[in-house]
Amino acid sequence: MSSLYLAAGLAGRTASLTSSAIRDLLALTARDDVISLAGGLPATDLIPIDRIAAAAEAVVRRPDAVQYCETSGHRTLRSVIAAREAHARGGVPVPVESVIVTHGSQQALTLLAQALIDPGAPVVVDEPAYTGALQVFSIAEARIESIPITDTGMDTDELERRLTAGLRPAVVHTVANFHNPRGVTMSEQRRRHLAALADRYGFWVIEDDPYGEICFDAMESGIEAPPLPIACHSDRVIRLSSASKILAPTLRVGWFVAPLGVCAAVELLKQGADLCGSSMTQLMAAEMLADTTWLDAHLTVLRREYGARATALTSALAAEFGARLTVSRPEGGMFAWASFRDGTDSSELLDSALDHGVAFVPGSAFASAAQYRHSLRLSFAGSTPSVLKEAVRRLGTAHSASARVL
Fold it and tell me: Which GO terms describe its molecular function (predicted)?
C-alpha cells in the first residue's frame, strides 16, 4: 500500500498491508470502453432480480426482519444452510449450531484467521492462491507457506513431505472446487489425503467453496460433479460458502460450518466486529435457498449460461493464440487460467491490454514465483459469448502491439 494511505499513529501491522491487485483493477475497468475479464463478478444479467424482489416483499413486513438477530446469524437461514450442507455431505446430519452466518465469506475467512492463527504461525495456501486469502493471512501476521496446485488440486504429497520435515501449520486453506484462480477441482484421493494429514498433524483445513454449485459440464457432457467435501473425511475441516455467486453479491450473505468450539470462538470475535448481520438479507437468502424448485431451475440456467461462456472464451483464445497459449478447460466456476509459451510477461501485457480496452489479472497477483509471470486469470462469467470473443480479439491486438514494442 502506498505511504499516502499510512498516517502516524497507526498500528504496526498496517505497514505491511497491500491492496488487492484485483480490487485495484476494478477501478481501472470501470471505464465503459474496457471489457473486464478481471474481477470474479457473477453475471449481472443472470442475477435473479425479480426473485430477489419477491423475497424482499415476502420478508420486509416481518418484525424479525427489521430487528437485530443472533450474532451467529438468523436461525431460519442457519437451518436452511444446515440442511443444504447435509445434502452436500451425502446425507450426513449437520447441526444448526455448527453454522455461522457472516457478511460474505470474506468476513468468515477474516474471523477464522483471528480465531485460529497466532502472529508468526505458519499457514499453508495453494500456489497460485486466492488473493483474498493471502490478504487475510497477511493481516493476521501469519507466515505463509505455498504448496503448488496441480490439475487434481493441492499437491498433498508435497505437503506431506514438508510436514514430515517439520512444518506445523495452524491452517491449510484451499479452494477445492473450481479453484480460484486455476479453475481445477481437487480429486477425491487428494481430499482424503489432506483430511488424513489434518488428523495426523492437528492442523485446521479451511475448505473454501464459493463455486461448487456452478458445475456446468456435468449438465452438458456427463462429467461428474465434484467429489464429496473434504469435511466428509475429517472433523478438522471448516467449510466456507456464500450466496454471492448463485444469488447476488449485494445480499452479503456468507457462512461457514465448523466444530462447535470454533463457532463459539468466532461468535465472540464477531460480537466485537459487527454485533450481527442483516436480518432482512439473511431472511431473503433463506427464502430463496429454501425454495428448491425455483433454486434448481435457477442453477440450471447458471450452469448452462456459464458453460456456454466458458466455451466461447476458451475457443476464442485457441483461435487467436494457437500454440502460443495454453488454456485450462473450465468444468465449473468462473475462471480460466492461461499461460503464454512465447515468453510474454502478463504484467507487462496488461498495460497494452488496457490501452486496447480489455482487462485480466496477471498471474503474479496470485503468487510470487517467477513461473507465474507468464500466466493470467480470465473470468468468463460476466460477459456474453459475443463480448468474450471481442475481448479476446482485443487481447490479441494488444499482444501483437506489445510484441512490436519489445
Answer: transaminase activity
